[in-house]
Design brief:
61% of the residues lie in helices and 8% in strands. By secondary structure, the protein is α/β, with parallel strands linked by helices. It is globular, with a radius of gyration of 35 Å.
């Protein structure tokens, strides 16, 4: 019975479909179309065509319109054969009716463009769409629904052809139309997403992210899961380009969650997810997992017939080939390059850029396999194909010349390689901007060829030219970038300076040390200096908008820091918000920079010269600037040997002295271990340690009393004052060593306002870490309390009773000198209190400190204890309630979470603060960025505005710390010595009663 009832409506439908009038057939067709019953609608559409022909004639508007509707239905249902025949019939009708320039003709070319696009005939579909758009704009107007529909379909065709500006014009046109007629529509969201893709492919990553997030908000409102999947995919690509593997993992997880919420097999999207996993594993160096994920994606795509997802298939195969190439599986890479090339031809034509990229990749693999002649033959066979006039030609041909130079070098045909590198630079200078990335690539390639040829004379000239171009590029754009991107960009310069030093080693006394040192001087600490100057100017300005932007940026940083100190299971809920905050804060940084354009440009272009520095020095003073570099730059160099270039600047000397410590690997391994072991044993470091770190430098320092030191690399982890010379004296007994972030600090005029500022001091100590119990006074079972991160399995921070006595003594000393002091201990020693301070003259924090080791990349959770990648979030001080937070126990919001990161410390306003004392363990540690210093507490408090910082390099015993601080304050406040003199005298005093492990734990930074 049920089956019969089901069939009856079909019978009646079939009965009533015949014998209807034209109007009734049109209404039935349109009703079924609106219900998305396309099969039924097609039957009525065919009937409408027949009735229109009989009633109005074959060239009538009604008949042509009926044919157009039928074409649309065939297009929707992908009935390619019917669509092809229908297009031919419609073309004949239009010509017979003489309507070649009418709306009907525009519609015909629109449908023809869609048909050709589905068949993969991109070039002819572009011609059809362009003709359709021209006709529609002329006949119907640019805002007509047909014109907008054509623009929507033509835009991705332009994208495939690399015609980004033409695509962008169409997208902006559609967005403007939708904004005025249908805001929040799918078409508007899709076009904003496409603008993000263009920005991504032209390396405007912040702009790309902004568009993706804007589109994401619209798609969420529309509940379009396929679109949301694509957005996560796009955000992943940006994160990959930025090297942010944590965000990559987050987006992969988000894509997986979206897939799980969708019905059906979704095989193609699962394949896409596998591609993303493969790319993540590639970033993490997981070669086996990377290649396995690509194979899985390839298998999935083949199981559904790759032609149904051609874009995914091409992406998979090309990236798979590139990964195989990288992992030195050259034979397999060649096979997949060839497959990717074949799959691109039906869509882009035989001479498309992807196909040529595959050919280049294949040639490079062959060259690496020793088949250089065959590789060069492939390159030469394809050389003429670059002469085709098309978008992207210049970039494609540039890549071709680059590959020719690389392949020539791999075949040890250095003359050919040199010739091709010359052609590469000439072509780049002709076709690209003077400071473009391609110019830099071309100049770097010339240097690489010089090195492979062991042509050190030309290498020295070319590396100088390369560095000058890179420096100009940096000066033109550095100020507008957020700090992380500044450091990445400056890393490129550091790498080139590294090569310049290594090249200079090959021909001693041929290269001017001064020229090299000025590059080092420009690089060191520049990102920090730029950020610091910008913050100081804004805080002291009367520009209310700049201040407002800065405060909003600061608020974003605070929120980010709050999120990452949540328990791991809660942090996951905030991943997307974190990305939104990062994007917003980046945009704010740029807005602030642009608002202060002239100041920021002047800061980047400030003329810090060797002559200015050497002129500052007195007869018994020197500067010692250290730069870490790799000595391996060519195939003849064995292993990855680290070196340290030591630049010694003496008063009014025309050239610095450049020494090379070639034993960098020893310094970074067993000598630093020996140094730490000796100190923990309570003895002075061995003579070998002194000889390795300082023995080669000492002979150049005769008659010197004061050394201004700008360390780098492993030198950040030692206190040079604790090294003992062969005459039995510690370096602190011989020299007054003053540690700086960079030598630029010496050029900063003295801050007279400090001597007139209010004498205020904030002192914090012995916080109540555990709010679930009263303040304890017990110490470690061994009877010694350490200001380190001492914890058991439940993260219990031990109390620090001596720290309370310490700050009370400091307060008494300060009060005698007219200071107004505030003391926060026990439950008052909260993170919220610390954040409330504004520029005290002295800030003294006596508590536990900790620096988390580098995160393990295989972890998938954003756990603050293990996988926080930002070193400014891994460096922390603990205040009241920290134990509760670490145990994931709730705390009153008014006290904060007790975990105070360097990220948060950087947001303090310490402009006018003369001294910050971090009386805790490991506060001088952090992630060392060559040329940029240590990312941790020291950078944070310096950025916040502190002039001098006292910090520790290792675990500090509570009572010994108290003695050190008391002695230091007495010399400074009662003996009226300067802060550097007081600090040095404290070390000299305490070395009589303490071990170097105790008196040498603390270091002073600042000027």
């Amino acid at each position: 019975m049920q089956k019969t009832l089901f069939i009856l409506p079909l019978v009646f439908w079939g009965y009533f479909s015949f014998g209807q009038t034209y109007e009734e057939a049109v209404n039935s067709r349109d009703s079924l179309f609106n219900l998305k019953n396309y099969t039924g609608a097609i039957s009525y559409a065919e009937q409408v065509c027949k009735l229109a022909l009989e009633r109005f004639g074959d060239t009538s508007n009604n008949h042509i319109a009926a044919q157009q509707t039928l074409l649309r239905l065939w297009d929707i249902t992908s009935q390619i054969d019917s669509l092809e025949h229908g297009l031919a019939s419609l073309d004949l009708l239009i010509k017979k009716a003489g309507k070649e320039t009418s709306e009907a003709s525009a519609y015909y070319y629109f449908r023809k463009g869609r048909f050709l696009n589905k068949k993969g005939q991109t070039e002819t579909s572009k011609d059809a769409f362009e003709r359709a758009l021209l006709l529609s704009d002329q006949v119907l107007g640019i805002d007509h629904v047909l014109s907008i529909s054509i623009a929507i379909d033509l835009a991705p065709v332009y994208h495939l052809k690399g015609s980004y500006q033409q695509e962008k014009n169409l997208l902006l046109r559609v967005i403007s139309h939708e904004e005025s007629t249908n805001p929040g529509s799918f078409n508007q969201a899709r076009c904003i997403y496409s603008l993000g893709i263009i920005a991504y492919e032209t390396n405007l990553l912040d702009q790309a992210n902004a568009n993706f997030f804007k589109a994401k908000q619209l798609f969420e409102h529309l509940n379009s899961k396929n679109a949301l999947f694509a957005i996560q995919d796009a955000l992943f690509n940006v994160a990959e380009l930025q090297g942010d593997f944590v965000r990559m993992l987050v987006y992969v997880d988000s894509m997986e969650l979206i897939l799980k919420s969708m019905s059906g097999a979704q095989t193609a999207l699962n394949a896409r997810l596998s591609i993303k996993r493969a790319q993540t594993y590639f970033q993490l160096g997981e070669s086996v997992k990377c290649l396995a994920a690509f194979v899985e994606a390839k298998t999935l795509l083949e199981s559904i017939d790759a032609t149904r997802s051609p874009d995914y298939f091409r992406d998979c195969i090309f990236n798979y080939a590139a990964a195989l190439n990288y992992y030195q599986k050259y034979e397999d890479a060649i096979v997949n390059y060839q497959l990717a090339a074949q799959s691109s031809v039906p869509v882009f034509g035989p001479d498309n850029n992807l196909c040529l990229d595959c050919k280049r990749g294949e040639a490079e693999c062959l060259a690496k396999l020793g088949q250089v002649d065959r590789a060069m033959r492939i390159l030469k066979e394809n050389q003429g194909k670059y002469a085709i006039e098309k978008d992207g030609y210049a970039q494609a041909y540039f890549n071709f010349l680059l590959s020719c130079s690389i392949v020539g070098s791999l075949g040890e045909d250095y003359e050919l390689s040199r010739t091709m590198s010359d052609d590469l630079l000439e072509f780049a200078l002709k076709n690209f901007g003077e400071t473009s990335k391609n110019i830099q690539t071309a100049k770097a390639q010339k240097v690489w060829v010089d090195i492979e040829r062991q042509d050190w004379e030309n290498a020295a000239k070319d590396i100088q030219n390369d560095i000058e171009t890179t420096t100009l590029f940096i000066k033109n754009g550095l100020f507008i970038l957020p700090e992380r991107e500044q450091i990445s960009l400056l890393g490129q310069l550091a790498y080139k300076v590294n090569r310049q030093i290594a090249i200079a080693q090959k021909q001693p006394n041929r290269e001017s040390p001064r020229k090299i040192y000025e590059h080092v001087l420009f690089r060191k600490g520049l990102a920090f200096s730029l950020s610091k100057k910008a913050k100081s100017k804004i805080l002291n300005s009367t520009d209310s908008l700049s201040i407002q932007l800065f405060q909003q940026w600061k608020s974003d940083q605070e929120e980010l820091s709050r999120i990452v100190t949540l328990p791991p299971n809660k942090v996951q809920q905030y991943f997307l918000k974190m990305d939104s905050l990062r994007i917003e804060s980046t945009q704010l940084e740029k807005a602030i920079a642009l608002r202060n354009y002239y100041f920021m440009v002047a800061s980047v272009n400030s003329n810090i010269t060797y002559s200015k520095l050497s002129a500052l020095l007195k007869p018994n003073e020197v500067m010692v600037d250290i730069f870490r570099f790799s000595q391996k730059i060519s195939k003849i160099d064995q292993g990855n040997r680290v070196g340290y270039a030591i630049f010694i600047i003496k008063p009014d000397s025309p050239e610095p002295q450049m020494l090379i410590l070639e034993n960098g690997n020893d310094l970074n391994s067993f000598l630093i271990e020996q140094y730490q072991t000796d100190l923990r044993r309570g003895v002075a470091p061995s003579h070998d340690v002194y000889a390795g770190f300082w023995g080669k430098i000492d002979p150049y320092l005769k008659g010197v009393k004061t050394i201004y030191l700008a360390p780098d690399g492993i030198f950040h982890k030692i206190n040079l004052n604790t090294l003992r010379r062969t005459d039995g004296k510690y370096l602190s007994e011989v020299y007054d060593i003053r540690v700086l972030q960079s030598m630029e600090e010496l050029l900063i005029p003295p801050n007279d306002s400090l001597s007139h500022s209010e004498k205020t001091a904030v002192l914090v100590g012995n916080p109540r870490f555990d709010f679930s119990s009263p303040l304890a006074i017990t110490v470690n079972p061994e009877g010694v309390s350490w200001r380190a991160f001492l914890s058991d399995s439940t993260f219990s921070l031990l109390p620090l009773p001596a720290s309370e006595m310490e700050i009370i003594e400091m307060s008494k000393l300060l009060k005698r000198q007219g200071y107004q002091t505030r003391i926060w201990i026990d439950t008052a020693a909260t993170e919220v209190q610390i954040k409330s301070i504004t520029s005290p003259r002295v800030l003294h924090l006596a508590t536990h400190g900790h620096f988390l080791v580098s995160p393990k990349r295989e972890h998938l959770l954003f756990d603050r204890r293990e996988t926080v990648d930002n070193p400014m979030l891994r460096s922390m001080l603990f205040f009241a309630g920290a134990t509760n937070t670490l145990r994931e126990q709730p705390l009153p919001p008014a006290i904060g979470d007790g975990v105070f990161t360097a990220y948060e410390a950087a947001n303090l306003n310490l402009e006018g603060t003369e001294l910050v004392v971090l009386s805790a363990c490991n506060t001088g540690l952090g992630k060392i960025e060559n040329g940029e210093g240590v990312f941790g507490m020291q950078r944070a408090f310096r950025y916040a505005g502190a002039h001098y910082i006292v910090m520790s390099l290792w675990e500090v015993e509570d009572q010994a710390t108290r003695e050190f601080m008391t002695t230091f304050y007495r010399h400074w406040l009662e003996d009226k010595k300067t802060i550097p003199d007081s600090f040095r005298q404290t070390q000299l005093d305490l070395m009589k009663t303490q071990t170097p492990f105790q008196w040498g734990a603390f270091v002073l930074m600042g000027n």
